Amino acid sequence: MPTNLKFRSWLEYEIECIFANGGSGGITRALPDRANFYAMLCNGNITDVSTKASVIAAEIEKTTTNNYNRFNAPLATEAIYDAGNKRWQMPVVTWTVSYPEAIQYNSVVLMAEARVDSNKPVTITPGQPAIFAVSDSHGLAQDEELMITPDTSGTLPSGLDGTKIYYMFSYVSATEFQISELSPGDPNRVALDLTAAGSDLILRYAKGRLVGFRREDSVETLAANAPRSFNFFIANAAGFGVGAGS
Q1: What's the pLDDT score for residue 180?
Q2: Secondary structure of 150-212 in the HEC alphabet?
Q3: What is the pLDDT at residue 184?
Q4: How far apart are CA 187 and CA 76, in angstroms?
Q5: How far apart (Å, rounded) are the C-alpha atoms in residues 16 and 43?
Q6: 70 and 39 in contact (C-beta within 8 Å)?
């Protein structure tokens, strides 16, 4: 039987929202828009304690033939109260997906506040700072989270970590940008310097918050041009609802 679980980081976020929004300290946390949930296909050992960086790195690569991208998986309703188990829980998430090339995967991950873009080839012009470029618009917002990983035949340049989340530091053009390894607000934050370009690199979009995942018993194949519908129930109680869809 497939395993359906929430990520522990999402459970911690739920608890934070409960106490922040319901407490007397005046702290509030914005609830995610239930229309802005996206599902992604992964190949990796996804568990409830997986980091976002490890999950994003495990997402399958988009190619010129499979046309892979994430797909919108909105929550149809607010959290539902289960009277029998005395708990609030997230509703079942359903969607249908199809790609022009067969795709193999072992996990489906749900993210909130994410974007539909998954990954695309990126090149580096070494320098102080280094400039990253894609063939079409990168679409990155200031401070947005991202990763740079090598594909199966690629090589990362020294100074770049393929297991780490970086941040968009500076908008150079619609196709070019600079990154920083330090998070927004850090007084020591600067653009990353690199002395080499590496080869066959992939820009991965890491914006969003991990919610839950469905891990299959074995590797599944999504046949080419064969629409498949998913029913995704995230186990365990949900402590709060989500914002109204727009």
Answers
A1: 97
A2: EEEEEECCCCCCCCCCEEEEEECCCCEEEEECCCCCCCCCCCCCECCCCEEEEEEECCCEEEE
A3: 92
A4: 42
A5: 30
A6: yes
Q: pLDDT by residue (tens digit) across 103-138?
A: 999 999 999 999 999 999 999 999 999 999 999 999
Answer yes or no: is pLDDT of 176 > 50: yes
Query: How many angstroms separate the CA atoms of 220 and 238, rounded?
Result: 28
pLDDT score of 237: 38
Indicate if the pLDDT at residue 152 is higher than 60.
yes
| DSSP H or E run through 17 | helix 8-22
Amino acid symbol at 168:
M
| Residue showing tokens 């079409």 | 136
Q: What share of the chain is helix, strand, coil (3-state, %, to 5)?
A: 10, 40, 50
* 145 contact partners, CB below 8 Å, separation of at least 6: 52, 165, 166, 167, 205, 206, 207
Strand partners, 33: 243
Instruction: Round to whole Å and give the CA distance between 119 and 117.
Output: 6
Alpha-carbon span 94 to 117, nearest angstrom:
20
Domains in the chain, please, with CATH? 3-114+209-232 (no CATH), 119-205 (2.40.30)
Judged against a pLDDT cut of 60, whether residue 222 lies above it is answered with yes
Is the whole model's pTM more than 0.85, yes or no?
yes
